[in-house]
Specification:
Elements: H1 3-12, E1 18-21, E2 28-31, E3 36-40, E4 45-49, H2 52-64, E5 68-70, E6 76-80, H3 84-101
Antiparallel strand pairs: 1-2, 2-3, 3-4, 4-6, 5-6
Helix pairs in contact: 1-3
Amino acid sequence: MTLAQRAMKQLEVWPDLSSGPASCGAGRALRSVHSEIVHFHSDHDVDLHLTVSAIRRFHDDLRESTAIRLVPGSGWVTVHLDCDTDVDLLMSLVSAALKAHQNVPSPAGKRPAGGECNFGRVTVLHRR
């Protein structure tokens, strides 16, 4: 089982998340009632809808992590899953993302928003 598969399996049982296709067309998504929260694009790369304000709040810490890729102006971060610690980081950030989206009202009768994730905007160089 890949790290992304293991993370997805753990997150699928969270009561605030449901699974479906990613709105960007690449991979699977987990969404809350408010928004798409996580896009699993590959065995190692995951986009997380953290929100611009949460990214601003955690910016210095996120920038320090070798697992995180930031795209200026994006409300999404890319998490590169290379080890168990990266999966733990993803779990913590998903919790922060759910809290960040909690106070955003969902438009009546509309599907949760996906927004533009970072798919295709981030290049991860794999270690050899």
